[in-house]
Amino acid sequence: MFGILGFLGGIASAAIGIVSGVVSTIGSVAASVARTIISIAPTMEKIVIFRNVITAIAQVLGILNPEEDTEEIGAKVMQEDTRPRMPNESAEDYLNYLRMDVELDRDKKDQMDEKDRMACIAMGSALTLETLSEKGTAQLTPEFVMNASKTKLAPEHIIHIASSFEKNQIGVNKFNDYFENKLNGNDLLNVNTVMKESIKEIHPDMTDKEIRNEIYQMKMEIQKEDKIENSSLQL
User: Fold this and answer.
1) Pick from 8, 12, 56: which is nearest to 34 by CA?
2) Where are the beta strands (DSSP E) in the chain?
3) How far apart are the C-alpha atoms of 192 and 64, rounded to whole Å?
């Protein structure tokens, strides 16, 4: 089992190496975010979940069309005929160039191994996150998305909670701290209030008790996933 985990770790490291090799193509910000995505989702199973959540969010917000996903965007980055991101070119403009002007070589994509696929997902997702940030549509971080994905929240609900944090001038990663019992004092009070208000806005018919239970269930889902991850690392 240790050998398998070591192999997976090697795949993730190789994927990070691929991303580092295309910094000049996608830009330093997107490359940094892509490396972070791989580091917090270092297996195919985890990074595919991340891809699915980011893709769904981008489709809800109109950044990607229903037939598009972030893995294909990243695959286009790696094609030989793809131009690099130009100086001062926005993430949105470069993303749209990849979407509309670069034809995906599906044969090559189908032949990619795990490290290439992980790099593609990370790069496409990073460009999507940067685009969302530029547009002011949603300030999402890889860490927030990863934790939110464990709660099985619908993409529009993830967006709503992130927007509520931003509206109340609370960093979105406080969401992670809240469910990991890392907050106290005013931070805990403020985040707890925002969470209750967000759930109430998502589910107007819920009672206060039902809202508290909903938040508790979210916490249980996150902790369950964390325990599974920790158990795997200890095997």
Assistant:
1) 12
2) none
3) 32
